[in-house]
Amino acid sequence: MFKIALRASTRFSTAPAGRFLLVAVTLALGACNPATREIKPLRESCDDGDVAACNDLAYRILRGERVLRDRAHAAVLFQRACDGGVAEGCDRLGEMYALSTGVPRDAARASNLYRQACDGGEMEGCIHLGSLYQDGVGVSRDLARAAALLGRACDGGAMEGCIELGVLTQQSDAGLQDLVQAANLFQQACEGGFMAGCVQLGASYASGEGVDQDFTRAADLYRQACDTDEMVGCLNLGDLHVTGEGVTLDLAQAATLFQQGCDARHGESCFRIGDLYATGSGVTRNLNRAAREIRRACFYGYEEACTRR
Fold first, then answer.
1. What pLDDT shows up at residue 25?
2. CATH number for the domain harbouring residue 97
3. How far apart are CA 207 and CA 215, in angstroms?
4. What value does the mean pLDDT take over residues 94-98?
5. Average pLDDT over the chain, rounded to whole?
6. Which of 22, 108, 195, 238 could share a disulfide with 254, CB 3.0–4.6 Å?
């Protein structure tokens, strides 16, 4: 390996003047760093009392975006934003308390923060609070209250609220069952560009719940979702190709769809492709490959696969 000799004149001196030059160069390099240019103004604005900047800075610190991740500090900044009237900051801090991220788990505290967020117009806060009332976590279980909160979010343009309300109105034990209304809510979410709504609407057409059973329509909705990387759509479309309902019976196409989902880290899709490799359906039988895909399914959180390894 060739070594390049540095001339004495280019080296930093250990004399005071040399050290000052080194510090100056270091500061200049730091000032040129894109992360420094992006984060420094946020810090300064937050320190000057701009609570929206505190919320933005907290989110970046929480995720480690162009700054060192520090969840505890993010919680402090979200609290400052929330106290200053930034509803989104209340919702994000509520999630941290709900998930024990940087702060101790405190469901009651989370519910109060979600309520504050929802009252401040942050629809995600309404969805999160509705979920707590549905599950009875941090609050007394109250399905009617949950439905009202999810409906508020849906009406406010949060399509996830439409889907969760639709799922709630499908459940017979909720005392709110209305399958037609559920299908309408799924359609609203799907038309709003939320592909999970298309998947749910497809499932309604496949089962005939709230709409006339139509496997072709179900397949079209699953395909729409799959084409936009909603892996449950790929999984459900693959299942239709296995049975030949609404589409051609095509095990090779089913395998392709299951593999697509598995490669996107969707556990149940890995389980399905593993089964196909185990039986040689649509693919060449390969027990080693089957075992590997089922291990992946378990790793990606599909619990049924964990008993099959």
1. 37
2. 1.25.40.10
3. 9
4. 97
5. 89
6. 238
